[in-house]
Amino acid sequence: MHRFSDLFLTSSGRIGRIAFLVGAGLVLGVWAAFDLLAPLAVRDMAGWLVAAALLYSAACLLSQRLHDRGRSGWWSGPILLAFAMAWPRPQAPFDWIALGLLVLVAVDLILLPGQKAFNRYGAPPKT
Q: Who contacts 82 (Cβ-Cβ below 8 Å, separation ≥6)?
């Protein structure tokens, strides 16, 4: 298993589906808890800092999982943009399109296994 800091603070390397699910669950849980529980004054003053930290962590997680699937980590940018459009609830037509794309990405990253052999991003994860 990866160290906690490796999951959230580096974009290099590869992670498997379980590590990705655990990490994504933590990031989403912290984000939702901050949105629901933080007082409005705290969200106004520190919301940008929390959002930046969580977006960086999410980009690192996505990059590592994309590497395991044989794709560039730069794809985490459009994925996070689609997430920002659809969070917390889609309203405009493009938000719904983004949500549909996120479902396809989730199927790819969560259900499909990574490449079994060494690829240009490193050795396969141990778990």
A: 98, 99, 101, 102, 105
Amino acid identity of 50? V
What's the rounded Cα separation, in Å, for the pair 46 and 65? 29
Q: In the Cβ-directed half-sphere of 73, how many Cα atoms lie within 13 Å?
A: 19
| pTM value surpassing 0.70 | yes
Contact between 7 and 24 (Cβ < 8 Å):
no
Each residue's pLDDT tens digit, 27-80: 999 999 998 998 989 988 999 999 999 999 999 999 999 999 999 999 999 999
Query: Which tokens in the block code for residue 8?
Result: 């959230």
DSSP state of 87: S
Give the residue from 100, 115, 91, 92 showing the smallest Cα distance to 17. Answer: 115
Maximum distance among all Cα pairs of the chain, rounded to whole angstroms: 50
Domain assignments of the chain as residue spans, ordered by start: 4-111
Categorise residue 70: left if φ over 0, alpha if ψ from -120 to 50, beta otherwise.
left
DSSP 125: P
